[in-house]
What does this fold into?
Amino acid sequence: MSFGDQLPRIVVPPPGPRSRELSADLRELEAPGVNTLPGLLAEPLQPSILWEEALGANVRDVDGNIYIDLTAGFGVAAVGHRHPRVVAAVREQAGQLLHGLGDVHAHPKRVELARRLAALAPVDDAQVFFAISGSEAVEIALKTALGATGRPGRPGIIAFAPSYHGMTLGALAVTSRPEFRDPFAAHLHAHVRRLPFGAGLDRVHEALADGEVGAVIVEPIVGREGVLIPPSGWLAGLAEACRRRGALLIADEIFTGFGRTGRLFTVDYEGVRPDILCCGKALGGGLPIAAVIARRDLFRCWETRGEARHTATFLANPLACAAALAAVAVIQEDDLPARAARLGENLGRRLATWPRRFPAVEEVRGRGLLWGIQFRTAEAAKSWMLAAWSRGVLLLAGGPEGRVAQIVPPLTIREELLEGAVGILEGIFSSLHQKDG
It folds into this structure.
C-alpha cells in the first residue's frame, strides 16, 4: 500500500531527534501554553511529535515515522488528509484569486458555497454567515441570538456541562470547563445558566419558565469533553421546549457535522431543525473556514446602513471556499455519512467488548466514527495514548478529568487500516498489563 493507506512504520522512537530539536526551538519562539502536549502530560518540557506530511489516513513526522491518524486533525480531515479533489480545487483557485475583499467585494465561490450550505442545513429559510473558526462561529451565533430576541429582558443563555464551544470570550462563556473560564470569569457574559448535559426536560422547562432566556446552545453529541450521547428523544424534547418558551435553539455541529456521526448533521437523527446551526472543522477539507446557518428572520438583526458589525479580513477566503466546496462534494457523492455509520457499527461492536476484556477501560461511548474510551484513571488514559503514539497510532486523551481517549478517524479510512489500528490499540493493553505486573 502507498502512503495514505499504510500501516504504521516507526523508524525511531517518537518524538525523534528532529522533533525534539524543533520542539525546543518552538518553546523559545512561541508563547507558553499554546502547544498543549506538556498540558496533556502534566510535564512542562516534553517535546512534541512534529508533522511533516499527511495523506489519507497517514501522517509522516519530521523523523520519518509513519502513523495511522485516529484524530483526523481534530476532526478536520473527514475526507482524509490532502484529498485529491480538495488539493485540485485549491490549486485551481490559487491560480485565479488568493484573497478577496472580505465583506466588501465577494467572489463566485463564496456565492456557490453559501447556496450549497443553505440548501443542505436542517434550518428553515436558511441564510449563511461565514466565519474563520469554530469559536468565531459560536460568537456569531450568540450575538445573533442576543440581537434577534430584541428585548433587553432576554439576555439569558442556557448551556450544558460538559460542553466545549471554543476559547474566545463569548464562546468561552458557554464552554463548561472551569480551568478554561476561571482566568477570564470577570469578563464573560454574566447571564449563562448551566444544566447537566442530558438533564431531564422538566429542568429545561423550569430554566426557561421566567422568560429571561433567549437562547439554548447544545452539542448534539458532546465531543471534546468526553463523547457523551444524549438520551433518546432528548434533542427533540429540547427543541420543543425552546419553541414553547420562545427561546432560540443553537446547535453546535462544529465537531459532529458533515457525516462524523453517521448523518450529515447529528440533529438529523431526531428530525430537529435548530434556529441556528454552527459548522466548521470538516467543512474546509483542511483549510480554515466555518459558518453559521440560521433562519433569515434572525439574521435581520445584522442589517445596517453603515459598516458590518461583525466581519474579518479573511471572511470566506477564496481558497477556503474552494476547498469547502470540494470537501462537501466528496462527502455527499461518496455518501461518507453512510460509510461512517457502517464502519461505526462494526467498530462499536468491537469496542463494546473492551470494558470486560481490559480492566483499565470503564466505558465506551460513540456513534458513527466518533468514539470515546473512558479509562478508570487519567494516568491510564495518558499511558495508553503515549504507547499508541510509540506504536504508530495517533489519538488523543483528555476531557475534563483527562480520562477519555477519542477515536476519530477520517471518514475515508480504509476498513482494513482501521481494523489494524484497533488491533494495535488492543495489543497495548496486554503490554501495559504486563508492565504493571
Remarks:
- The radius of gyration is 22 Å.
